[in-house]
Amino acid sequence: METPALPRQIPIVHISGTHRQMGNQIGEARREQILHSIANAKQLIQDTYEELHLTWESAQIQSRKYIPFAQEAYPQYVEEMYGIAEGARVPFDDVAIVNAMEGVTMDALHLTKCTSMAVNQRHTANQHVLAAHNEDWLPEDEPDVFLVHASPRDEPPFLAMTYGALLPNIGMNAAGLCQCCDTVYPRDSRIGIPRVIVSRAVLGARSPSDAIRCTVIPHRAAGYNHLLVHESGELYNIEVSARQFALLYGEDGRLVHTNQYLHPTMLGIEDESDELISTRVRYYRALRLLRETSLHTVETLQTILRDHINYPDSICNHDSSNENRMDREKTITSLVMDLTERTMYASWGTPCQNPYYRYQVNA
After folding, report:
1. Beta strand pairing status for 356-360 and 343-348?
2. pLDDT for 177-198, tens place per residue?
3. Within 10 Å of residue 28's Cβ, how many Cβ atoms?
4. How far apart are CA 68 and CA 337, in angstroms?
5. Which of 93, 148, 171, 332 could cysteine-pair with 142, CB 3.0–4.6 Å?
6. Does pTM surpass 0.85?
7. Rounded to whole angstroms, how far apart are CA atoms 179 and 158?
């Protein structure tokens, strides 16, 4: 395992106004992290040329193909991307690549170690509704993690995680909705609305049905699993591909998801399932741990997120530096969200080595 880091708190950016203004504020406040994330993306494409046969210039051309679909469906979030580029003083095409990276690389970044879970008031000690997520991504992007507390003019305020030039998408809003995302790998991916923009739209939803409609909007490029939680205790996994989706309801008040499809319909279009063994092991491990505690708290979910069974492919994921450049990943942030209190507990880096700090969604 890595050497434990000194305790550190994830920085938070407060933004408000129009979508363009909010993007501009992110760009100005986090310019260093945005520049670093773009440099990381350029280096990744350079290092993987033998596998992808992709240059930065051709990646820019590819990313432009996704923008008209996003512009038609969600022009407000394209405006946020333009704002980020303006505020950070970087080319819009560079921001577009970061937000369409999974599509531009044709899902060759086979990153398969995110973990999401939720429990409703039937299974918590204080009758609160809780959700939790470990965000596993490229180790080089860990320094670029930050939180965004946004007060849009036309949407509910929200608190969400992001890194670098990426639009925020994993978090909770003042309407009592929470989203955790896990990358899945369908065979029907195409040029369309990038996954990140679809998931950004969910943060603007005011009800579970509105959120679900966002995840299955037509002309999407591919899909995530969207674990959606409402303050009422409604729990859903929406497994999405470019052309299909399936809804899994948390009938017993608990849900878990990792990076493989669960619904039989979606399993039929999963790409290279034999490469997804570790995510299945992690899914069952998280499900067992969730079921073994009858009444959960924020602390019990944090304990699950620190679990190391099946290390290094564990829930708490540590970088294995000898892996292929396209397969390296680690837990870069860990989140537990209390929908009832509208609070988020966030750890910067692996939660076994870094403390959680408390943040609040302000209406």
Report:
1. antiparallel
2. 999 999 999 999 999 999 999 9
3. 17
4. 34
5. 332
6. yes
7. 11
Q: What is the pLDDT of residues 307-317, one digit of tens each?
A: 999 998 899 99
Length of the chain: 363
CA–CA separation, 360 vs 363, rounded Å?
Answer: 10
Annotate 82-126 with three-state secondary structure: HHHHHHHCCCHHHHHHHHCHHHHCCCCCCCCCCEEEEECHHHECC
Phi, psi of 219 (to 5 degrees): 65, 30
Structure tokens that stand for 39 in this block: 């440099």
**What are the b/e assignments for 150-185, b being 16+ CB within 10 Å?**
bbbeebbbbbbbbbbbbbbbbbbbbbbbbbbbbbbb
Rounded distance between C-alpha atoms, residue 349 and residue 44, angstroms: 20
* For range 141-152, the mean pLDDT: 97
Residue by residue, DSSP assigns 121-170 as: GGGBTTS--EEEEEEEE-GGGGGGEEEEEEEESSS--EEEEEETTPPP-E
- Helix H or strand E segment including 203: none
Q: What is the pLDDT of residue 245?
A: 98
Question: Residue 200: which residues within 8 A CB-CB, separation 6 or more?
Answer: 74, 77, 80, 167, 168, 169
Strands 130-137 and 330-338: what pairing? antiparallel
The CA distance from 333 to 343, in Å, is 16
CA gyration radius, the chain: 19
CA pair distance 300, 161, nearest whole angstrom = 21
Residue spans of beta strands (DSSP E) within the chain = 12-17, 115-119, 130-137, 145-152, 158-163, 170-173, 177-183, 224-230, 235-240, 245-249, 254-257, 330-338, 343-348, 356-360
**What single-letter DSSP state applies at residue 270?**
B
Q: How confident is the model at residue 326 (pLDDT cuts 50, 70, 90)?
A: low
Closest CA to 227 of 281, 310, 286: 286
Mutual angle of helices 195-202 and 75-88, in 10-degree steps:
110
CA distance 353 to 63: 36
